Amino acid sequence: MKKKSYLISFMIMAVLSSCNENNHNSTNTTSNSQSGQPEESPTFTFDSIKQHYALGEDLVLKINHEKKQKLDTVVYYINNKQIGQVSGNKSFKYALKHEKFGKQIVKAVVFSDGKQEENTVSIDLFASTPPRLLQYSIVNIYPHDIKAYTQGLEFYGDNLIESTGNGIGPSGNKGKSSIRITNPKSGAPIKKIELDDSIFGEGATVVNGKLYQLTYKNNIAYVYDVNTLAVISTLPYFQPMEGWGLTSDGKNLYMSNGSDYIYTLNPHDFSKLDYIRAATNTAMIDQINEMEWVKGKIYANFFMEDVIGRIDPMTGTVEELVDLSKLRENVTQHVDLDVLNGIAYNRKSNTFFVTGKNWDKMFEIKLIE
Q1: How far is CA 242 from the centre of its chain?
Q2: CATH 3.30.450.40: does it fit domain 21-126?
Q3: 347 and 155 in contact (C-beta within 8 Å)?
Q4: Domain range 132-368, its CATH number among 1.10.645.10, 2.120.10.30, 2.30.30.140, 3.30.1480.10
């Protein structure tokens, strides 16, 4: 997996600059809708369309026809979904708030003199505002199992649910996938179940007395009794993909797969209900890892970034970022020390417990606006 530095760089520089919005009149491919064969060249372009748009902004579409001929009808599509049509060459306005973040494919089909022609252009849809940058204070530091390759972390009552994977460090030592209930202040497991070596444990969360744990590449989730850690069942993913982070709003599950996607899932059968894509005002944010649901928002680790972000689960907007890279300097430095991963919110103290893979410390921190 490729190391990125985008978020750290963003926190240093991006707030000081604004996103340039350039006119974008170049087009991609054109085709004759009736024959399906490519035409030699387009005879129209999109007038004054931009490359970058922000959530809440309207997409205003109008055709610039080289032959200046009279047009009968123009039908517009976005991502192969028809969004409207106009007679002649009137302007058409579409609210982009209906679309997910990321690349959008805009298509126009022009009807004129009994003929039709189509053309497409791509635009990018990002968040409307940059993330706020937060500070933090350390409230307490507790022991943590240095051999725990932490993948998921969440409070259940006064104890922590922790999921670990069997990652291999530079020393060649391989971790052990497990699901455990841990004392947050001593770091000692109260109950622990280890998984077979063929299973790489990933994110975990609790819904309605059931504990769900993802697997990295086995395409299934384990369902446990949260009190005994007895396996109740396994559930297949709704499509082949990697399992990374998992959290819950108390009703539905939210799952990441290492991309910029966060899927809303039905906890009964792991079927997909919806999804969002995470973005700042300038870029899509991928490699979303461990997640935690806090007061209607998703807090997330990003793989290979010692950063936590707050994500709006309705839109995918990355609203806040906090740089925790200094924490890593305060743990025992050893050859298998790995990245920040693990976010657990303590409702009683309004603090976060955070750690990392093969860290020997757990940090209780308070975020400062």
Answers
A1: 13
A2: no
A3: yes
A4: 2.120.10.30
Closest CA to 146 of 352, 342, 337: 337
What pLDDT, on a 0 to 100 scale, did the predictor assign at position 7? 61
Q: Which two tokens stand for residue 225?
A: 């009794």
Nearest CA to 33 out of 75, 69, 89 is that of: 75
pLDDT at residue 65 in the model: 80
Do 21-126 and 132-368 come out as alike in CATH topology?
no
* CA gap 309, 122 in Å, rounded: 28
Asked if residue 304 lies in contact with residue 1, where contact means CB atoms within 8 angstroms, the answer is: yes
Distance CA 206, CA 251 (A): 10
Measured distance CA(189)–CA(345) in Å, rounded: 19
- List the Cα angle 312/314/315 in 5-degree steps: 75
Nearest to 205 by CA among 240, 163, 167: 163
DSSP string over 304-327: TEEEEEEE-TTT-BEEEEEE-HHH
**d(C-alpha 2, C-alpha 257), whole Å:** 15
**pTM attached to this predicted model:** 0.88
Kindly list the domain boundaries of the chain, sorted by start residue.
21-126, 132-368
Is residue 334 pLDDT above 90, yes or no? yes
- Tell the burial category of 195 from Cβ atoms under 10 Å away from its Cβ (0-12, 13-18, 19+): buried
Query: In this structure, are residues 95 and 53 in contact, taking their beta carbons and an 8 Å threshold?
Result: no
Dihedral sign of CA atoms 312, 55, 260, 219 in order: positive
Structure tokens at 9: 């760089």
Confidence band for 353, pLDDT divided at 50, 70 and 90? very high
Mean of the per-residue pLDDT values for the chain? 89
- What are the tokens at 3? 């190391």
Of residues 114 and 68, the one with the higher pLDDT is 114
From the CA atom positions of the chain, what is the Rg in Å?
24
Rounded to the nearest angstrom, the gap between the alpha carbon of residue 8 and the centroid of all alpha carbons in its chain is 17
Q: Which pair of tokens denotes residue 85?
A: 């049509």
Beta strands 102-112 and 115-126: pairing type? antiparallel
Q: Which residue has the tokens 């708030």?
A: 97
Q: Is 244 helix (H, G, I), strand (E, B) or coil?
A: coil
